[in-house]
Write a structure and sequence with these properties.
L,D-transpeptidase catalytic domain-like; 14 strands; Muramoyl-pentapeptide Carboxypeptidase, domain 1; single chain; 3-stranded antiparallel β-sheet; 8-stranded mixed β-barrel; 19 helices; alpha+beta; 4 domains
Length: 549
């Protein structure tokens, strides 16, 4: 069979099996084959490989990947493997917006145009590398997020689990393309439920939101009758919190609906629609949709095994939870850092290794120099519940020290509050050593747990039920946790109790999160972090959509 015959055969085959959008440039190549001989074919192959090598040269991961395959193409070619990879890739790019990604980064139409307009082996080699580069950008974005968290919010200290780019390409080249791409997004149930909630809210936005906002200068209570009560009822009906009814009275069903709404939004479930509750009721579906976009980005940042047993602290929810195999087995209210510079609780993950019973409080330096030093300069006997200590632990004599001689940079001492009933750390602290000096602990300030918004600490996480929290952790290693805890506590000052199996701790910040039953809950953006993240996402090209149907 001559080369002209081969060319006619290739053109015929391509016309029958290839998608229309890929036929023009491949038929052109077939024609070139038909008009040339073996030497020209070899030359074209060499030109393709040379173009691949040159295009990949500036990217080590790409260069190593293509070198290992002798600079042959991954995407460009008439074989079934190349066709399957192209189809899977372009389909994924078309669906990028479904995941809250900046779709313009992976412009499938522009890539298709480049393929159609290719006129040489050099063009095709360059396009092959470009497709690999865009694929790797997409893989990183959908696996571990569009943004670098710490660049957007300094207090997000999370280590994002980026995958090796060369390994991604290598695994993809050996896998079924569509199946492989489906494994790229987080595989957590939370991500899947957030994705569903996103689609649901997009349809609500397209249908005109949840109706008229509720306007009322006064608190709405059971027994009230007004236009505002009707508006509240109508809005909660559209939100799915109650069945349709025409009553204008703030009756029992409406009160129950308000309570369910309050529980889903971290509010005191008293069934009374005060300004706080009405403010949350009036948040638009579009705004809630933005919270879900941010939650999906956050889920990508934490796309790694959380641990069969782990501790989840959601700063916006003011709770700390122990999770065993996906089920919440213990939950307690928490107090988190105040919304003040240098006091906001950071976000990160680490491992809890031990707890300290009867802890002394070693005062953070920022508190020493900013809060206590000015007091000592006025009165050396101020804050006399605290010991002033040298580096070797010895106690500084207050009356013999001129504190006015020091400033915030030169103050040479530490400060410690010995164990006591009124100790700032209470009777136990839970340690996961980290650079930010953040831990979970007891507190004598129990009244704060009755508040709806509990942002009052200097950054650490205070627990409402620290003993029960300790019992739940110890239950994995002792038969009678409460008796064991009491016996260790009775030993005296600063008793360290190691966890036989360290427990991962994840301090996160979710204004939108789902329930195991598939519901969605929302919380206030207490530090304004999610607003910054959403603004950064929009700058990258992420856009919320209204979807009909």
């Amino acid at each position: 069979m001559g080369f002209r015959t081969i060319g006619r055969f290739v053109r015929s085959a391509l016309t029958q099996v290839l998608p229309t959008k890929f036929r023009p440039f491949l038929i052109a190549l077939a024609t070139a084959i038909a008009m040339s001989g073996p030497a020209a074919v070899a030359q074209e192959s060499a030109a393709f490989r040379q173009a691949v090598a040159e295009a990949a040269a500036s990217d080590r991961a790409l260069l190593n990947f293509y070198r290992d395959r002798d600079f042959t193409g991954l995407w460009i070619g008439a074989g079934k493997d190349e066709r399957a990879r192209r189809a899977a890739l372009l389909s994924a790019f078309d669906e990028a917006a479904d995941h809250g990604l900046p779709a313009a980064r992976y412009d499938s139409k522009a890539l298709e145009a480049k393929i159609r307009n290719a006129r040489s082996q050099t063009d095709l080699g360059q396009i092959d590398v470009e497709l690999s580069r865009v694929f790797l950008n997409y893989a990183r974005d959908i696996q571990t997020g569009v943004l670098v968290p710490g660049d957007v919010v300094e207090d997000i200290k999370r280590r994002v689990p980026h995958r090796d780019r060369g390994s991604i390409l290598d695994a993809f080249s050996k896998s079924t393309p569509t199946a492989f791409i489906r494994t790229l997004p987080p595989q957590s149930e939370e991500y899947a439920r957030l994705l569903k909630a996103k689609f649901d809210l997009e349809r609500i936005v397209a249908a005109g939101d949840w109706g008229t906002p509720v306007y009322s200068d006064v608190t709405l209570r059971p027994g009230d009758s007004s236009d505002a009560v009707v508006a509240l009822r109508n809005r909660l009906i559209r939100m799915g919190y109650m069945s349709r009814t025409a009553s204008a009275i703030y009756d029992g069903p409406l009160q129950e609906a308000v309570q369910r709404f309050q529980l889903d939004h971290g509010l005191n479930p008293d069934g009374i629609a005060g300004q706080g509750t009405l403010g949350e009721v009036n948040v638009t579906a579009a705004a809630r949709l933005q919270s879900i976009f941010v939650a999906m980005e956050r889920e990508r940042w934490n796309n790694q095994p959380l641990g069969d047993r782990h501790i989840w602290v959601n700063l916006t929810d003011f709770t700390a939870k122990i999770v065993d195999n996906g089920e919440v087995t213990f939950v307690t209210r928490s107090v988190v850092g105040a919304n003040i510079e240098d006091q906001r609780s950071p976000e990160f993950s680490d491992r809890m290794e031990y707890m300290v019973l009867n802890p002394g409080w070693y005062v953070p330096r920022s508190i020493i120099v900013n809060e206590y030093l000015p007091l000592l300069q006025v009165d050396p006997l101020a804050v006399n519940n605290l010991e002033i200590t040298r580096e070797d632990g010895s106690i500084v004599e207050r009356l013999g020290t001129d504190f006015s001689a020091f400033d915030e940079t030169t103050f040479p001492f530490g400060m410690r509050e010995p164990p006591s009933q009124g100790n700032a750390l209470g009777e136990v602290k839970f340690m996961f050593p980290n650079p930010y000096n953040i831990y979970l602990h007891d507190t004598p300030s129990q009244s704060l747990f009755a508040k709806e918004v509990r942002a009052f600490s200097h950054g650490c996480i205070r627990l409402d039920d620290p003993r029960d929290f300790a019992y739940a952790l110890l239950a994995k290693q002792v038969s009678d946790p409460s008796s064991y805890y009491a016996s260790m506590q009775a030993l005296g000052d600063e008793i360290e109790v190691r966890l036989e199996q360290p427990v991962p701790v994840h301090i996160d910040y979710r204004t939108a999160f789902t329930t195991a039953a598939g519901g969605i809950e929302f919380r206030r953006d207490i530090y304004g972090r999610d607003a910054k993240i959403w603004a950064a996402l929009t700058r990258e090209g992420v856009a919320a959509r209204a979807v009909r149907g």
